[in-house]
Amino acid sequence: MSAFDDLMVFQRETEALAQIAGRLGWDQETMMPRGAAAQRGEEMAAVEGVLHARRVDPRITDWLEMIDEGHLDDAGSAQLRHIRRSHARASKVPAALAARLARITSEAQGIWAEARENEDFAAFAPTLSEVITLKREEGMALAAGGDIYDAMLDDYEPGATGAELEAMFGALRPELTRLREAVRSAEAPPVLQGKFDESAQMKLTRQLAKTFGYDMSMGRVDKAVHPFSSGSGLDVRITTRTNETDPFNCFYSTIHEVGHACYEQGIDRAYLLTPLGAGVSMGVHESQSRIYENQLGRSRAFTGWLFGQMKDAFGDFGVADEDTFYRIVNRVSDGYIRTEADELQYNLHVLLRFDLERALMGGELQVDDLEAAWNDRFKADFGYEVDKPSNGVLQDVHWSVGLFGYFPTYSLGNVYAGCLNDALRKDVTDLDDQLTVGDTRAATGWLRENVQSHGGLYHPKELITRATGSAPSEAPLLSYLSSKFGELYSL
Amino acid sequence: MSAFDDLMVFQRETEALAQIAGRLGWDQETMMPRGAAAQRGEEMAAVEGVLHARRVDPRITDWLEMIDEGHLDDAGSAQLRHIRRSHARASKVPAALAARLARITSEAQGIWAEARENEDFAAFAPTLSEVITLKREEGMALAAGGDIYDAMLDDYEPGATGAELEAMFGALRPELTRLREAVRSAEAPPVLQGKFDESAQMKLTRQLAKTFGYDMSMGRVDKAVHPFSSGSGLDVRITTRTNETDPFNCFYSTIHEVGHACYEQGIDRAYLLTPLGAGVSMGVHESQSRIYENQLGRSRAFTGWLFGQMKDAFGDFGVADEDTFYRIVNRVSDGYIRTEADELQYNLHVLLRFDLERALMGGELQVDDLEAAWNDRFKADFGYEVDKPSNGVLQDVHWSVGLFGYFPTYSLGNVYAGCLNDALRKDVTDLDDQLTVGDTRAATGWLRENVQSHGGLYHPKELITRATGSAPSEAPLLSYLSSKFGELYSL
C-alpha cells in the first residue's frame, strides 16, 4: 500500500467515528431518555477526544510528506486538501485552550438558557465575555497573524473572508430594508386559521420529504424540538416538529431539512466515508435547504400543488383558492425571531448578527455594549423596538456555544440559492409546469448533478461558479425577492 | 494524580466508548434505516478498533506496575482485577487472528442464515469448521496451556470451569427429563385462544416494565425482532415484540429484559462508567432476568394479578379464572426451539448445547458428525425426533458468530435464580401477598440490594454465596421446579 492508501484507510476510520458522533447527537435529540444526559456528556466527550487525537495524529504529517501529489487525480488532491486543512486546524489550537473552550461553552449554554428565561442579559454577559476571550485566543492561534474573524469563518465556509462578505451584505441590506418597508405599507394577506391534526401533518410531511427526493430507505423522519438533518452517506436522518395551528412550520421545516439531507445523500458514492463525502461548506449546505424550501417549495407553482394536498389531508381549511394560499404561505409579518422570519426579512436578521459578532471579535464592540448595539441596529433595520432580551440579543444559542463565523453562512446560502435558482430556471425552462403537479425531479436532479454529487471536490465558490456559469453575487437573490414580493404585494 | 487515578480516567473513557458501541447496536435493531447497513458495518468496525487499541494500550501495563495495591480499598482492587483481566485477554490474542475471526464470523452469520433457510446443514458445515478452527486457536492463545473451553467460558462467566458445570448439569439432567416425562403423561392445561390487539399489548407491557421497577426516565421500550436489553448506567434500553395470538411472548419477553435492565440500572452509581459498573457475568445477568420472568412473573401470586390486568386491557378473553390462567401461563408443550421453551424444559435445550460445544472445542466431536449427535441427543432427552435442521442444529445463531462457552451461562443463570428465590422467600415471608396485588418492590428491592447494586465488585460465585448464605447449587432450582410442576400437573 502507498502512503496515500494508508492515509485514506486511517481517514476512513476517522470519518466513520465522526458519523458515530453525529448519530449520538441525533439520538440525544430524538430518542435518548432524559435521565441519560449526564452519561451522554461523558460518552460524547470520549468520542470527541478520540476524534481530536486522530486529527492531530503525527502519522498524518508523515504520510502527507511521503505522498507524491503529482500522481494523484483531482479527487485525490482534493482529499489531501481537506485532510491537510483539518490536521492543521486541530494542531494549531493548544490542547489546554481546546479543553477550556469545551468546558466554558458547555457551561455557557446553561447560563445563556437561564438568562434568556429571566430576560437578564447582564447575567449572561460575564460568561459571554469569557467565551469571547477564549475564542479570540483560538482565533489568533488559527490566524497566525491574519484576521481572527476570517480564521473562524474558515471553519464553516472555507476561503470566505469577512471583508468580502461585508461587501456582499452591504449591497443586500439597503435593498432588503427598502423592500421590507414597501411591503409593510401594502395590504397584508390573510392569516391561516383553524387547527390541523398533528398526525395528519406528519403523514403529509413524510410525503413531502419523498416528493423532494429524500431516500427514506437510507433515512428517517422523527419529531424533535428543533428541526435538523444529521449524518452523511447511507444514513442521513432528519427531524421536524408539529404545531396544531401552524402546519407550514412542519412542512417547510421538513422541506428545508430535506434540502440538507438530499445534499448528503446526493454525494457521489465513491466519496463515501472520505473527506469529500460531506457537504463542502455551511453556505453551500444552506443553499440547498433554502432553494428546496423557498425558490421551489414556496413558489406559486408548487404551493398550488400543496394546496390540493392539504385539502386532501385536512378537508376544507378555510382558504378559498390557490392564489390566496400562495399569499398566505408567503405572508410577511413583523417579528423579532430569526428562525421564524420569512424569506424577505430573514437575511436582515443575519446581517445584524454578522456585523455585531465581527465587531466583538475585532475588539471594537464590548460585551457590555452588545445589548444596546443589538437594539439600535434592530430599530434601524426593522423600524420598531426590541421589547425584551429573549426577542433580541438572547434569542440565539450560537454565541454561547462559541459559534462565531457561523451566522453569515445562512445568508451566503440564500445568496447561493438565488444564483442556483437563476441557472436552474435557465436550464429547465418548464420547471413551473412540473412543480404545479408536485414533480420536483428535474429541479432536484439538476441540483444533484451540478452541486450535490461533487461533495467536497471543489472550493465552495468554485462549485457555485461551475454550476451557474458565473461568480456568486447577491444580485439574483435581490432580483428574485423584489420580483416575488413586488408581485405578491402589488408594489 | 496517582497512577491509579490516571488509569481510571483512561478506563472511564474506554467504558464510555463501549457504551457508544452498545448504543449503535441498539440503533441498528430498532431505528436504523435498512439501507444504512453497509456504512454501519464500517462504523462498528471503527469503534471496535478504537476499543481494542485501548484495551491493549501499553500504558495500562505501566500504570498497573506503578500502582501500590496495598493502598486501595476493595472496590479499587476489584477495578484493577477487571482491568487486568480485560488487558490480558486482549493482549493474548494476536491481532491477525482477531481480524480473521472478525471477518469469518461476520460472513458466517449470513451463511448460517441461508443454510437454515434452506434446511441444509452441509452448506454451513465448512464455514463452521473454519470458525471452530480459529476459535480453538484463540482458545489456545487464551488458555496458555490450560483448558481451551474453560478459557472461552471465562469470557462470559469469570472463574467457571467446564468440569464444574458438567457436574452441576449432570445432576440437573436426569431430574429434568424425569419431571418432563411425568408432565407429558399428565393432563395438559388448555391453550390460550383469540386475538390480542398489539398496541394494547405494548401499553400493558410498558406498565409491566414499570411494575418490575424499570426506570423509564433512564430507559425506553421499543419493538425489535429479538428482545434484548442494551446499555449500562443511566441509559439502559430494552426491546420486546408482539404477536397477535401470543401476548405472553410480549409480556414475558419484557419482564425478562427488564430483569437484565434492572440489574444494570441497580448498580451502585459510584461505579458508573467503570469496570465495576456493569453486570459481573452472563450467568448472574441471566439469574436476574430469569427470576423476574419465572420465579416472580410466572408465580401463582403474580399471574393472579396479571389476569386482572389482561381482563382490563382486552376484556373477557375466554379464560375462566386465575387458576386456569396460571396453568395456561405455565403450560408445558413439546417443541424444538430453545427460545420458545418453557421453564421446565429450557435447561434441557441448553445442556445439549453445552455438551456438544465442549466436545467440538475439545476435538472429540467433528463438525461432520454434529448434526447426527444433536439429533441423537435430542431424541434421548425429549423423546421425539428432530424434524428439520432449522428445528435442530441450525436453530441458534451463537456458533456462527463464534459464541462458544456462552450457552451454559443460560442454565447457570437459572440455577442462580433458584438459589436467589429460596433466599428471597426466606427474607421476605409475605412475598406472595405482595405479588398478588402486583407489588414487586420487596422482591426487586431485595435483589437490588443483594445482587444488582454490587456490579462487578465480587466474583460471580462469591456474589451468589453472599446473597444466599450458601454456595450455588442446582438443588433449589430442582426442588422449585418439581414442586411447581408437580402441583400444576397433579403429579
UniProtKB/TrEMBL annotation, chains A, B:
Claim: Secreted is one of the keywords in the record: no
Gene Ontology terms describing biological process: proteolysis
Residues annotated as catalytic: 257 (proton donor/acceptor)
UniProt cross-references to InterPro entries, sorted A to Z: Peptidase_M32_Taq
Needed co-factor(s): Zn(2+)
Family the UniProt entry places it in: Belongs to the peptidase M32 family.
Record field: catalytic activity: Release of a C-terminal amino acid with broad specificity, except for -Pro
Residue positions binding Zn(2+): 256, 260, 286
Principal EC category: hydrolase
PANTHER family: CARBOXYPEPTIDASE 1, METAL-DEPENDENT CARBOXYPEPTIDASE
Co-factor note (free text): Binds 1 zinc ion per subunit.
The protein's name: Metal-dependent carboxypeptidase
Keywords: Carboxypeptidase, Hydrolase, Metal-binding, Metalloprotease, Protease, Zinc
UniProt GO MF annotations: metal ion binding; metallocarboxypeptidase activity
EC number: 3.4.17.19
Function: Broad specificity carboxypetidase that releases amino acids sequentially from the C-terminus, including neutral, aromatic, polar and basic residues.
Species name: Sulfitobacter marinus
